[in-house]
Model the fold of this input.
Amino acid sequence: ITRLALDTARAAGGLGPLEGHMRAGFLLPLSDDTTALRVEFSHGFEDHSDERLRLPLHGSFAGEALAAGRALIVERNDLAKWNRSLSRPEDRWVRKMVWSEARWLICIPFCHTPSDTKLVLAIDGNRDLALASKLLEPTLTSLSDHLVTMLDKGLPKELFEW
Done:
């Protein structure tokens, strides 16, 4: 679904399909720590060092999206924005574990209604999106709305009982 939405937006801008490696993972709250999220139930991480990474709520894009209650998209070519994440001195070890090939990141926060659990779906890839700025927001909104509806209905409550 994500690749289709991004390819559609790229086609509207006269670009070909998005190539490269794409990953997705849920960032779930930890039962023993209210200041962090952990990457769980991921796809595409293979042997990447950030599988099951523990991310701080404060100072990470996932935490920012969750706090704002809306999806965000960040591209590595926007260095000022990209470098804002995990920029605190206490985040230096986490920063070293993050996938260095990532060129963009989408964070979609949502509340799983059956379990009342707030979490983030994070999707990233290693090739530039190259979307025109006027296409970023509509693409993100459409993708976010579709995924949140699908996930809220498709994820069992038992997934969040730990």
The chain has a mean pLDDT of 89.
